[in-house]
Amino acid sequence: MKTQMVLLKARFLLPIALLAVLAAGCGGGGSSAGDLNPDDVAVVGSQHISTAKFNQLLGEAKVNLKAQGQTFPKPGTTAYSNIKSQAVSLLVQEAEKENEAAKRGITVTSKEVDTRLKQLKKQYFGGNEKKYQAQLRKQGLTDNLVRENIRQQLIGQKLFDAITKDVTVSQAAIVQYYDQHLSQYQTPSSRPVRYILVGKNKSALAASLLKQLQNGGSWCTLAKKYSKDPSSSGKCGQATFQQGQTVPAFDKLAFSLKTNEVAKVNTPQYGWFVLSPTAAVKKGKSSTLAEETKSIKQTLLQTQKNTAMTNWVNKIQKSYCDGGIRYQTGYKPNPDPCATTNTTT
Asked: Which element (helix H / strand E) includes 41?
């Protein structure tokens, strides 16, 4: 997986990889592989993967590794074999995507690529052509390769849209999600409190501090001298607590005392506290189902679309493993993705 990420970063090293996952994840199906040409690494259905394209991908990986301060592995090593296998697998996945898009009549025009590239240049380079060209040179890329990557990404997005266009989210699912995640739509009540952590088996000291504070003693002086909690001793005992997020005995007292009333409490976890709320309780807020419906719907819709895409990939990818891929000698990935597919399907 780490090797594959190196290749993904290499292939989409410019900030144009918004759809790289689609490019690497789309399977296809239903086509027999054509005959291998002498300069092919593999053929997938009607798509030929050339040695030149394979070498280009390895070249990008070299640049990416160098940018990370790493050395590209030497041929014959296990690390090189891993990168080689992942490179072929990635190119096969792209070819599968091309085949499936073609079956659905999905195309991307030069104008669409130009528009997207213009947007990216503006977003990342302020529309400055010199900065864009400098980045290409730094990463060992060409403008044509960037355009091809963009074309692949746009095809991936169109394919995703076509496969998931009928996905919907029911109101019942929205209600269920809201009920199951109710806590994240609620802001708990809070209250500022001054406190001193006296500690375990310190009943007498807690009583003494309570009396001193009730008679006008200094919270800063006493907290600095006696509190065993650094956050209390260093801030004159001041803190703000959210209801339900402290130990039960402390929490109950902190949110039930009158403002500026001083009291002590013994807790099983930490021992004795002396505390005093300095302001009224700030009531928490809750957002309603109606207020959250739009956001929940978007979340569920994206999740269900991703699931639909995954199911589609799993359903048709196996058909390419039944005669839909031919590898040139020495280029078959190890492990073979088809072996995994046939085992788990």
From this structure: strand 40-44
Q: Is the pLDDT of residue 35 over 70?
A: yes
| Separation of alpha carbons 107 and 35, rounded Å | 25
Among 259, 185, 197, residue whose Cα is nearest residue 222: 197
Taking phi over 0 as left and psi of -120 to 50 as alpha, with beta for the rest, 19 belongs to: alpha
Task: Give Cα 229 distance to the centre of its chain.
Answer: 36
Beta strands in 230-282 (DSSP E): 238-242, 263-267, 271-277
Does 270 map to a domain?
Answer: yes
Beta-carbon count within 10 A of 98 CB: 22
Q: Which residues pair with 195 in a beta bridge?
A: 275
- The CATH number given to whatever domain includes residue 219 is 3.10.50.40
Predicted TM-score (pTM) of this structure: 0.64
7 and 145 co-located in one domain: yes
In a shared domain, residues 200 and 61: no
User: Is 184 within a domain?
Assistant: no
Domain containing 241 equals: 189-283
Q: How confident is the model at residue 337 (pLDDT cuts 50, 70, 90)?
A: confident
